[in-house]
Amino acid sequence: MEKNTKKTPKLLLILVVGWVLLYILARLILSSWISIGFFSDFLIVILVILAGVVLLVSNIVIVTLSSFRWLIRRERPHVATFLPLAIMLVFYFLPIHIPSRTEMAFYHHRDEFIELADPFVNEHQNADRLGCHLPESPLYESAVAGRTWPSGALVIEFIVADYSLPLVYISTDNPDDVRDTCSEGGVLIERLEPKWYVCLRDWN
What we know:
Layout: H1 2-30, H2 38-72, H3 83-93, H4 101-108, H5 110-124, E1 131-133, E2 142-147, E3 154-159, E4 167-170, E5 187-193, E6 196-200
Antiparallel strand pairs: 1-2, 2-3, 3-4, 4-6, 5-6
Helix pairs in contact: 1-2, 1-3, 2-3
């Protein structure tokens, strides 16, 4: 029984290393760098979340019991006992950011996007109605502009690298002013700089 108990931290370490690899894969999927298929992508993300919860709870239990034995019975825990929990906490709380393809496209062509947006906004700032496509450009697949009410903010939506993660320009730089962004109901998930955002399209 004691032998099996000592093997438990090693097994958890192997499982946590496997979870870390899946975690990185899930982050790449969410950042739109890779895609196995919509259903497979969804399953991987759910698997990472569920496995992460199970492994985190398991590691907390193992560390707590090992610490108790160490204090009460003077049984020194295996060197791998605390390592799986430490790895998981690092990945949970360390701000690991994988930029999306949309974000990278903006930073690589920032000046060009600004040169497209600023003249358009200046020209249409006082227009009563707005709902038109911008000129074609190799920077994006498509782009459409519109005005949101009641704020009157001008919003330009660029489909750059991923249809589900468009680049969005907001003239007021206030997300609260925006309604029906990213094709009705999308969520602004990242502010790149004033007036420029990455949006997560609503698929409902």
